Amino acid sequence: MIIHQLSVFVENQGGKLAEVLGVLKAHEINIRAMAVADTSDFGILRIIVNEPEKVQHILRGAGFTVKVTPVLTILVTDQPGSLFEQVDKLSAAGVNVEYVYAFAATSAETARVVLKVDNLPLAERLINSEGRSADPYQDETSAAPNFYW
């Protein structure tokens, strides 16, 4: 499933993550998934929320730089090799996985995985076992406004 992820650029200084989380708390925004990548000067906070367009405007209004990125999410079973099987499909088709993060899903037997890939339409078709088609991905702002995990 393709959903929208928010990438929030945050200075790599004490208290900056708390500032972002404070804005989200003040607006009663529930974070469904989160990952942080850092460098010496700044970090990229990647979050999945129910209403990404709304949250993007809230965070921008609070002075943060925010980017909305379509990403692929998949559900994998809690068994050795289940993620490999999915990523191997992508690799065999030449799809590059740029980054990935995962977290427990609603069931203890599964995990939700977020994948940023260089060919989102093809990756989604491969994961869904639909094969190749010529249909391009349509980046609709309302693609998953009330997505719950």
Describe the structure.
A 6-stranded antiparallel sheet has the order 2-3-1-4-6-5. Helices cover 27% and strands 37% of the residues. Strand 2 (31-38) and strand 3 (42-49) form a beta hairpin. It has 149 residues and is of the alpha+beta class. Mean pLDDT is 84; it is low at 131-149.
Summarize the structure.
This protein is of the alpha+beta class. It has 4 helices and 6 strands; from the N terminus they run βαββαβαββα.
Task: Output the keywords.
single chain; 149 residues; alpha+beta; 27% helix
Topology:
Layout lengths: L1 E10 L4 H11 L4 E8 L3 E8 L2 H10 L3 E13 L4 H11 L4 E8 L5 E8 L2 H8 L22
Antiparallel strand pairs: 1-3, 1-4, 2-3, 4-6, 5-6
